[in-house]
Design brief:
With 252 residues, the protein is mostly helical. It has helices at residues 14-36, 41-66, 71-75, 77-82, 88-106, 110-135, 165-183, 192-208, 224-251; strands at 4-7, 10-13. The chain has a two-stranded antiparallel ribbon with strand order 1-2. β1 (4-7) and β2 (10-13) form a beta hairpin. α1 packs antiparallel against α6, α6 (110-135) runs parallel beside α8 (192-208) and α7 (165-183) packs antiparallel against α8. It is globular, with a radius of gyration of 19 Å.
Amino acid sequence: MYPEIVLGFLILSSYSIVYALAFLVSSSIFWLELKRRREKFQIFLLFSLALLLSGLAGARIYFLLLEGKLGDLLEAPIRTLSSPGTIYHGGFIFSLFIAFLLTKLTKRNFWTMADSLTPGLALAISIGRIGCFLNGCCLGRPTSLSWGVKFPGFEALSNLRLHPTQLYESLVMFLVFVFLWRIRKRNRPAGFLFSVYLLLWGSERFFLEFLRETKASPLLFLSTAQIASLIIFLFAIAILILKKGRTHSRGL
């Protein structure tokens, strides 16, 4: 665990550095996809900055909501939003809503823009989870497996080996990125690639939660992240059914 990187007199957060790298890499891929679709660079800048800010805000607000600290946002909004503690599902949902509004304002097709974002989203998660591993957050459950990892920064867990769930997700999402990158040019309805991403990401996160120390939900044995992942999975199925129905209608 390396939460800080020391460069002379500079002490940098490894979590922040990795997440900045994830944004730069994913936004570069986003631009390549928009360029392939002959989109303007100004549109890339608008969407990239809007999605970055809305993603950070949504992830933080969702964390505060689940922790019962949403009132802190009203008392000190700037300090509360800039404090640590985020949940990716919240950032994804809020940035998706902002992306929908932007497509309406700029008269772009939402599904086409979502498809352009998709490969970069998968790679961003893959890179970002390395930051979680270095920071010692999003911890897994104890394991006796030989590749279990100790996190000495946590006294109660210092003698236990934990599932490196951050690295599990990093690897799986990198494979998802490779798969999406290979099929991105296939002749499919707009939104197909985005739906496949949601299916794979939702499934991966749902099952990974069984190996993580996570926040329980009121619904049976499922965690809050599993509930969100299940909703995302069902949303993707609905999109695919809708797209398939429209494709068949056009063929008649």
